[in-house]
Amino acid sequence: MSRHRLVVLAGPTAVGKGTVSSYVREHAPEVWLSVSVTTRPPRPGEVDGVHYHFVDPAEFARMQRDGELLESAVVHGRASYGTPRRPVEEALAAGRMALLEIDLQGARQVRDVMPEALFVFLAPPSWEELVRRLVGRGTEGEEEREARLTTARLEMAAQKEFDVTIVNDDVRRAAEELVSLM
Asked: CATH number for the domain including 56?
C-alpha cells in the first residue's frame, strides 16, 4: 500500500478516535493533527486550541458562510463540528503528514474535495464494547447516550465506504497502524 500524506480518521462515537489521535499527537510528532472547531462545551480536561477550538454558534455559522471550513456537520443532532480549511492546506503545502479526526458526515465531505486522501474507519472490537466505552466515560446523560448510540448504528453501517478499517482493541497498536499508513 502506498503512503498517504492526508489521512481521514472516522468512526462511531466512543470508538476512541480522540484517544488514538492523542496517542499519535504524543508519540508521532511528525504527524500534524488538525484541531476541529465545535459549538459543544468542553468536556473535563479538554483545552481550547488543543483538543478543539470551542466557538459559539454565531461564530461557527460565520466560518461556514465565509468558506473557512473544509467540512462541517451537526453531530448527534446537537452540536456543530468542522475542520478549519487553511491549517490543513498549509500543513499539506509544507509537506507534512496530516491527520483529520472527524465524523462520518465530515469524512464524506472531505472525500468530495480531497479524494486523494486515505479514509480510515476506526472500529470497535464489538458493539457491546462500544456501548461499554460510551457509558464508561460518563460524559453524557442517558438521553445524549441514546442519541449517540442511534448515530453509531448508522456510522457502523458506513464502514464499507472507507479504504481501510482499524479495530481499536488496543490504543497503541491502533495508533501505530494508523501512522504506518502515512
From this structure: 3.40.50.300
Parent domain of 14: 6-180
Nearest Cα residue to 121 out of 131, 107, 111, 110: 107
Distance, CA of 107 to CA of 69 (rounded, Å): 13
Q: What is the pLDDT of residues 115-143, one digit of tens each?
A: 999 999 999 999 999 888 888 877 778 88
**What does pTM read for this prediction?**
0.87
Q: Are 43 and 77 in contact (CB under 8 A)?
A: no
Helix (H, G, I), strand (E, B) or coil at 68: coil
**Which cell goes with 161?**
465506504
Amino acid at 63: M
What phi, psi does 49 have (nearest 5°)?
Answer: 90, -15
Residue 73 — left, alpha, or beta (φ > 0 → left; ψ -120 to 50 → alpha)?
beta
In a domain, residue 149? The reply is: yes
Phi then psi for residue 78, to 5 deg, are -125, -75
- If pLDDT is split at 50, 70 and 90, which confidence band does 3 have? low
Distance in angstroms (rounded) separating the CA atoms of residues 57 and 37: 11
Query: Domains in the chain: how many in total?
Result: 1
